[in-house]
Design a protein that fits this description.
six-stranded antiparallel sheet; mainly beta; 181 residues; 3 helices; Jelly Rolls
Length: 181
């Protein structure tokens, strides 16, 4: 597995070795020892999630408040997304900055999103299947949504009118959330 440090401290781009032959392909999507050694971290995962979305959907930007904050190992099983992470760590030199990366089911690249980041994605293909390994279980009272199109974040999602859930449409700006972070 190749590990690349993203420009925002703590985010890691993980490129697993893909074994391809006449039958198709194989990857080791997670191995605790390999992940810990390659990434220099050793989180314990508490919950796995998958979503399926059509093209033009934006999910996010989601996070859970402390003490129920989650780290996430994310990847696309099928299809493609524009994945976006926003640094919401108070006191961080990159607070409010974002990182974007294309993740797809062909390349199998994964992204480690540690606690302290809001996370979301835009689907680029129909029937995109997105997988999340989370370090803490879902805790509804701790759930927060950072507004996907907060002007202060200046995220170019490449779409003006995405399909959004009611929760994501009602997200708060970073300025509104900042006192609670």
């Amino acid at each position: 597995m190749e590990v690349e440090h993203a420009p925002l401290d703590g985010l890691l781009v993980l490129r697993p070795k893909v074994f391809r032959d006449d039958r198709g392909w194989f990857i080791e999507s997670f191995n605790a020892a390999t992940f810990g050694a390659a990434a220099g971290i050793g989180p314990r995962f508490a919950q796995d999630n998958e979503s399926c979305s059509q093209a033009g959907v934006v999910r996010g930007l989601h996070f859970q408040a402390v003490p129920h904050a989650q780290g996430k190992l994310v990847r696309v099983v099928k299809g493609a997304v524009l994945d976006v992470c926003v640094d919401i760590r108070r006191g961080s030199p990159t607070f409010g900055q974002h990182f974007k990366i294309l993740l797809d089911g062909e390349e199998k690249v994964m992204l480690w999103v540690p606690e302290g980041f809001a996370h979301g994605f835009r689907t680029l293909e129909n029937d995109t299947i997105f997988s999340y390994k989370c370090t803490a279980p879902y805790h509804p009272p701790s759930e927060r949504t950072l507004l996907w199109n907060d002007p202060a974040l200046a995220i170019d999602w490449g779409i003006a009118d995405p399909v959004l859930s009611a929760k994501d449409r009602a997200g708060l700006t970073l300025a509104a959330l900042a006192p609670t972070l």
